[in-house]
Design goal:
- The chain has about 375 residues and is of the alpha/beta class.
- It has 2 domains: about 220 residues, 3-Layer(aba) Sandwich (Aspartate Aminotransferase, domain 2), CATH 3.40.640; about 120 residues, Aspartate Aminotransferase, domain 1, CATH 3.90.1150.10.
- The protein is built from 10 helices and 14 strands.
- The strands form 4 sheets. It has a 7-stranded mixed sheet with strand order 1-9-8-5-4-2-3, sandwiched between helices. The chain has a 3-stranded antiparallel sheet with strand order 7-6-12, with no helix packed on it.
- Helix 5 links the parallel strand 4 and strand 5.
- Helix 3 packs across helix 4 and helix 3 packs across helix 6.
- The longest helix has about 30 residues.
- It starts with 13 loop residues before the first helix and ends with a helix.
- The mean pLDDT is about 100.
- Pyridoxal-5'-phosphate binds next to helix 3 and helix 4.
Length: about 375
């Protein structure tokens, strides 16, 4: 059978299987003790007071903006270079996304360009810690303070990541995480909001469960976006492993950095202010060569992928905004040059060496 090294793979052992069985046997499958325990432990891990678990990272972002009171007529600044949910959450509440170009070395929002995008209608900024690298948060918080804006951290790719020694997710007003199976820890699918603002936490709790305050008493219009108990139980086990997973990712990334140092690749950058958690190990190469390299790596069984080939403003679902090419030159260039390699904790030493060997062979042939 052909060897395939996947770009991502969840890591489970007997503990996850055991806890799923226990929840099933308990018969308590929704709105129960596992979710509450997971909310407390995850929030506390991030250094926030409250956690509100939901069924996806997309829901976490959506509920966060609703809980912050964002709606039609408002503008929210975000990055053009991310998974689509980072901007869709703004549209889902009826507000307008305003994109600011990215920095070419961190791939995160260019913090120098944010202030120019602030208007009378701006209510907040959704920053994304892309690939597991924290945004430079101090300048963002300064602008937010100056104009009275909220800051939501989309930390869907950055569980355990740090900014100046603080865990991401608790630096802005609200942090949102995803537990999709490819993420640094997974619940099989799910998400969570963390915040230290009790009013936002309370509104988010109501919004994610039909606006219910107690049995069949509903005080606001809400959704059912609850995280199931089975998912929370898996999350509790995964959370204990998170620091170990992060260390393994960092170790593999360091090894790749050493091995690829002489190749014609732009390697990931870890600024002084951040602890990168390498949700993705992403490199850049001449755009003309990128797709050949990808094809060859995949032929050799190394599942390399592009995150993300089309900047959000140019997605067909954003056509109505009429963004024109050239509006986000850095994001547009980077989207043509990046590709990511497997860096997850399920990789064996042999897998990592194989990836290195194939990357070197293919790049040297070009
Ligand atoms: C940066 C970013 N934001 C938001 C999401 C949305 O999370 P989910 O897929 O759990 O809805 C993801 C995950 O795919 C993501 O990578």
């Amino acid at each position: 059978m052909k060897r395939v090294i996947p770009i991502a793979k969840p890591v489970f052992d007997r503990e996850e299987f055991k806890t799923v069985r226990e929840v099933l046997e308990s018969g308590w499958l929704m709105n129960g003790p596992k979710v509450r325990e997971f909310e407390e432990k995850f929030a506390s891990y991030c250094g926030a007071k409250f956690g509100v678990a939901v069924n996806s990272g997309t829901s976490a972002l959506h509920i966060a903006l609703l809980a912050l009171g964002i709606g039609p007529g408002d503008e929210v600044i975000t990055t053009p270079f991310s998974f689509i949910a980072s901007a869709d959450c703004i549209r889902l509440v009826g507000a307008k996304p305003v994109f600011v170009d990215i920095d070419s070395s961190t791939y995160n929002l260019d913090v120098e360009k944010i202030e120019d995008a602030v208007s009378d209608r701006t209510k907040g900024i959704v920053v994304v810690h892309l690939y597991g690298l924290s945004v430079d948060m101090d300048p963002v918080l300064e602008i937010a303070e100056k104009y009275g804006l909220f800051v939501v951290e989309d930390a869907a790719q950055a569980h355990g990541g740090e900014y100046k020694g603080r865990k991401v997710g608790s630096i802005g007003h609200v942090g949102c995480f995803s537990f999709w199976p490819t993420k640094n820890i997974t619940t099989g699918g799910g998400g969570i909001i963390v915040t230290s603002d009790d009013e936002v936490a309370e509104r988010a709790r109501l919004l994610r469960f039909n606006g219910e305050v107690r049995d069949y008493r509903h005080v606001l219009l809400g959704y059912n976006l609850l995280m199931p108990e089975i998912q929370a139980a898996i999350g509790l086990v995964q959370l204990k492993k998170l620091d170990g997973f992060v260390e393994k990712r960092r170790k593999i990334a360091k090894f790749y950095n050493e091995e690829f140092a002489d190749l014609d690749l732009v390697l990931p950058f870890e600024p002084e202010y951040a602890k990168h958690v390498y949700h993705l190990y992403t490199v850049r190469v001449d755009a003309k060569k990128r797709n050949y390299i990808l094809e060859d790596l995949n032929k050799e069984g190394v599942q390399a992928k592009v995150y993300y080939p089309i900047p959000i403003p140019f997605q067909p679902s954003y056509r109505e905004f009429g963004f024109v090419e050239g509006s986000f030159p850095v994001a547009e260039k980077v989207a043509k040059e990046v590709f990511s390699l497997p860096v997850h904790p399920a990789l064996s030493e042999e897998d990592v060496n194989y990836v290195v060997e194939k990357v070197k062979d293919i790049l040297k042939q070009l």
